[in-house]
Amino acid sequence: MLARSLPLALALLSPTAASAQRPPNVVIVFTDDQGYGDLSCFGHPTIHTPHLDALARAGTKFTQFYVASPVCSPSRAALLTGCYPKRVGMHKHVIFPQYDYGLHTDEVTIADMLKKRGYATGCFGKWHLGHRPGLLPTDQGFDEFHGVPYSNDMSRVHRKPNAKYPYHMPWMRNREIVEWEPDQRLLTKRATEAAIRFIDAHKDEPFFVYVPHSMPHIPLYASEEFAGTSPRGLYGDVIEEIDASVGDLVATLKRHDLVDDTLFVFTTDNGPWLPFKQNGGTAGPLRGGKGSNWEGGQRVPCIAAWPGHVPADTVCREVVTTMDLLPTIATLTGSELPNRTLDGHDAADLLLGKPGASSPTEQFLYYTSKGKLAGIRRGPWKLVLDGDQLYQLEVDISEKWDRNKVHPDLVKDLRAAAEAQDAEIEAEMRPTRKVAEVLFDPAERRPAPK
User: For the chain, does the N or the C end have fewer beta carbons within 10 angstroms?
Assistant: First the structure.
């Protein structure tokens, strides 16, 4: 798999009517720490992403697409639940191997919702929402899980032997540990191949395939086929392998004549990890990166395609967020929305390109990597609460010109609105789930079960 085949534009650009009896399949590819500017269709001059470029030509590219946190675990919780991380208690930074909590199983994930609708559901790659018994993907609506439970740097190979928590990283199949310290050069390939096998097995029923890749989170690894091939260096190798993964997934859909019956979404969990220089990505024209509340930390690339439904070769400049995916997918699949308060909105009209459609998000809150209220966006205006910095993003995408002295009343209004919404979320905050039992001891490597 992950072959360097020609772009699949032709496969994607000849729509036929979707089956009236079968709701659309859903594929979400969710990368880790990829910057806004790290695709050639988003302006990178040396990283070559022909398959994602083809996906963009076949569908819609979103240029104002936001994640709900600038770090991994909270962002993933928001994607899957349609809620701000704080609302589901997952706002306090990332989950480390020694932690005993995770996303509560009372929460309704996209997988839970679609499973109830009759979908086969699979997660292939990095989870990072809890790894103790009862907190794994198979406890959160997924029929199958193949991958790693947390970030690829949480590994014995990348931690000092005398560290306080000498972690080990397992490769898992559902709840079973099948390998300790997997070869990280093969993480992208293995996740992709598992997803393809799942599609092959469930081609005759609606399916939800979630592919949260471990890369390009550091440490960077590419398989032998891609290592040393990009002029951008190892980081470029990693992105181009992910691009080929997308190509292989689309080729699998094509092989089963399912391209026209599948909503395919590509995005990432937060901006690039800038301190690692050539081993980190780029946010393009945006300021900042991972861990920050500047646009580069939370505005990310997003592409969506569904031939015959999502208009081809278009750009959506409206504000859309990962939290909108759950309610939007509910509309497109005829699924029942969770009976819980959500923060995302139904953006189906935007996705389907309906004339006059506008963003259903009246205001968007920015939270720090540890869950503190940091800012608000409303219309073209963004207020950074630290220093009451005011930016007109439609004019000033790089956040260079603070306009707070020109619009003092707007600053006060936006601050009050942000604080009021945050107070409402905090008052209704739901708990995480704590689990005393351990499935494996990350500080003491055990033999994989036979």
Answer: C
Task: Look up residue 355 and give its two tokens.
Answer: 């004339």
Q: How many CB atoms lie within 10 A of CB 51?
A: 27
pTM, full prediction: 0.93
Looking at residue 448, what DSSP letter applies? P
The alpha carbon of 342 is separated from its chain's Cα centroid by a whole number of angstroms, namely 18
Give ∠ CA 131-134-136 in degrees, rounded to 5.
Answer: 45
User: Domains of the chain: which residue ranges?
Assistant: 23-358, 364-427
CA distance 400 to 396: 7
CATH C-level class of 364-427 = alpha beta
Tokens coding 17: 């009517």
* Nearest-angstrom CA–CA distance, 258 and 247: 14
Neighbours of 400 (CB within 10 A): 8
Tokens of 48: 């070559």
Which of 128, 202, 213, 345 is catalytic? The answer is 128
By residue count, the chain amounts to: 450
CA distance 338 to 81: 9
Quote the tokens at residue 20. 């009236």
| Annotated catalytic residue 128 | yes
Torsion, CA 110, CA 242, CA 146, CA 100, rounded to 10:
-70
Task: Tell me the pLDDT tens digit for each residue of 6-56.
Answer: 444 334 433 333 345 789 999 999 999 999 999 999 999 999 999 999 999
How does pLDDT run across 180-205, given as a tens digit for each residue? Answer: 999 999 999 999 999 999 999 999 99
CATH number for domain 23-358, candidates 3.90.1720.10, 3.40.50.980, 3.40.720.10, 3.10.20.320: 3.40.720.10
Report the first-to-last Cα separation within the chain, whole angstroms.
27
Query: Does residue 72 carry a catalytic annotation?
Result: yes
Whole-angstrom CA distances from 160 to 93, 155, 166 are 22, 10, 7
Question: Of residues 72, 83, 123, 302, which has the active-site annotation?
Answer: 72
